[in-house]
Write a structure and sequence with these properties.
The structure is a single chain. This protein has 303 residues and is an alpha/beta fold. The protein is built from 14 helices and ten strands. It has a five-stranded mixed beta sheet. It has a three-stranded antiparallel beta sheet with strand order 3-10-4. A two-stranded parallel ribbon has the order 1-2. The termini are far apart.
């Protein structure tokens, strides 16, 4: 009896191990978590699409700053991320919007130059643009009739500016110092602040002005007034999947449909949809995965 029991146990253990090996045998694809809700939501969409429509197994790496994320893609430490054409243009490639030839779309030019210069490119855009924007308290804007960034310049010496650490980086042209030079700003003070804390800092009065993203749902929640970039400092920031340009060739033996699967999101997410999803996470407290899954199910992309 003991021998039979031992045999059955061995068979059961073997079946469990075999099942585990089968799962482990799937080729992994490494995705990067996002540093804020928008990127994390879309990366969760990517994971759900890949797991449902390919034989690949999704693995995750922690979020990284923009340049580090690009390096990770180049170095095969990661395979997929969300990129923005303006970020690829300025922060990663080191160009200015004026370098884009007249008559050519920024997104198209960056797709090509990114591949030629860094071996990085973008899939087709999702459909929304999340550009940088300067925001102040609505009450202050209305009190002083401020509508544009230029309108705010005379008030700079009275105000404290705060934004996430990355905006203060020396790499890239779309950063704090070039911004001040472009508009002629002088501030009473300036503070790098964690991206998750800047809205609380605005609400608490420790900073008066901050850099936001145009699709951020918290702009509505905290009643911030987004100023017009009247001197056109910031380029377009159309989002799309960012990857090294050999990615689909590398995964062709294991997931020949990978491009088609990721392309399911191309031109499918407009600004309104992205603002709503960001609001659902940042204000309503929903989980990134649940928000991503609901969007995909409502649009017939997954079961």
């Amino acid at each position: 009896m003991k021998k039979i029991t031992a045999t059955l146990a061995a068979l059961m253990l073997g079946a469990i191990l075999l099942t585990g090996c089968t799962q482990d045998d799937r080729v992994p694809i490494t995705l990067l978590h996002g540093p804020f809700s928008e990127i994390e939501i879309i990366m969760q969409m990517a994971a759900l699409l890949i797991e449902e429509h390919t034989d690949l197994r999704v693995e995750w790496q922690d979020s990284m700053m923009t340049v580090l994320a690009a390096n990770a893609l180049n170095d095969h430490h990661a395979d997929l991320y969300v990129g923005y054409d303006g970020t690829l243009l300025t922060t990663i490639l080191g160009y200015d919007p004026t370098d884009v030839p007249p008559g050519e779309l920024l997104f198209d030019w960056v797709q090509r130059r990114g591949s030629e210069v860094r071996g990085l490119t973008l899939l087709a855009p999702f459909g929304f643009e999340n550009t940088y924007a300067l925001a102040i308290h609505r009450e202050f804007a209305e009190q002083h009739n401020i509508r544009t960034i230029s309108d705010l310049v005379p008030f700079g010496p009275e105000l404290v500016f705060g934004a996430e650490h990355e905006f203060f980086d020396v790499q890239g042209t779309m950063r704090f110092n070039p911004f001040n030079e472009h508009y002629g700003f002088e501030w009473r003070g300036s503070n790098p602040i964690d991206i998750a804390l800047k809205y609380a800092a605005m609400a608490g009065g420790s900073i008066d002005v901050t850099m936001v993203y145009s699709t951020d749902g918290l702009n509505v929640s905290f009643d911030l007034f987004v100023l017009e970039d009247d001197l056109a400092f910031f380029p377009e920031y159309n989002a799309g999947f960012q990857f090294r340009d050999t990615l689909f060739e590398e995964f062709a033996p294991y997931a020949p449909n990978l491009r088609d699967v990721l392309d399911m999101l191309s031109h499918q997410i407009d600004n309104y949809a992205m603002i709503y999803m960001n609001y659902a996470v940042d204000e309503l407290g929903e989980n990134h995965i649940d928000v991503a899954r609901r969007f995909l199910q409502e649009n017939g992309m997954i079961q």
